[in-house]
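Propose amino acids for all 197 sites.
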């Protein structure tokens, strides 16, 4: 009976140590560590089954690698996550966009849709930016129109980001792909809107 009691004390100590380790890793990831530190943290996470299965920790690790210009490592972490949601997909899309892998961001978005994950007001600005940066007007309009129809353009984040950055670029792209003079575009329309262009 004595051994059972001491074993339970040991288990409690291990749980506390594991929780402290997790807290320390999270705090370090939040401080934008360098790549060398990231690799050490990543190694520690992989070696602990509890940490390795923690999706929120994986998201923080993805963000940290992406911030250090490592979308390839970010993608490896993404690929090992079996149950994906829009947060995880958004981190991957943003990683690609912030590191100028615009086509990969668009492909990730399409993959996200194909797997049944619904985009949100954080997804669309990144995808619109990828679309405009890759000079893909048609895809940008395809993305923006459903966003407007769903009311996502009314959301502060999507409204500001998409309309001030990506929408202006999409309009510029449209103007550069048309033979009309800029002042002729939208002539005769009651209300000019990106979905009517």
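Proposal:
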């Amino acid at each position: 009976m004595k051994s059972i009691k001491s074993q339970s004390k040991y288990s409690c100590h291990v749980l506390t140590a594991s929780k402290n380790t997790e807290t320390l890793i999270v705090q370090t990831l939040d401080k934008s560590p360098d790549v060398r530190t990231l690799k050490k943290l990543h190694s520690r996470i992989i070696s602990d089954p509890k940490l390795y299965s923690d999706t929120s920790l994986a998201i923080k690790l993805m963000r940290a690698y992406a911030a250090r210009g490592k979308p390839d490592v970010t993608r490896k972490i993404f690929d090992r996550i079996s149950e994906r949601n829009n947060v995880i997909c958004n981190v991957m899309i943003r990683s690609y966009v912030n590191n100028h892998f615009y086509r990969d961001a668009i492909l990730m978005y399409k993959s996200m849709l194909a797997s049944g994950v619904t985009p949100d007001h954080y997804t669309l600005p990144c995808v619109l930016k990828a679309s405009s940066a890759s000079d893909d007007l048609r895809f940008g309009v395809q993305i923006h129109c459903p966003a407007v129809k769903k009311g996502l353009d009314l959301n502060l984040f999507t409204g500001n980001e998409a309309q001030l950055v990506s929408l202006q670029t999409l309009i510029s792209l449209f103007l550069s792909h048309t033979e009309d003079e800029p002042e002729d575009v939208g002539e005769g329309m009651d209300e000019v809107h990106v979905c009517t262009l």
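The chain has ten helices and no strands. The chain has two domains: 1-83, 92-197.
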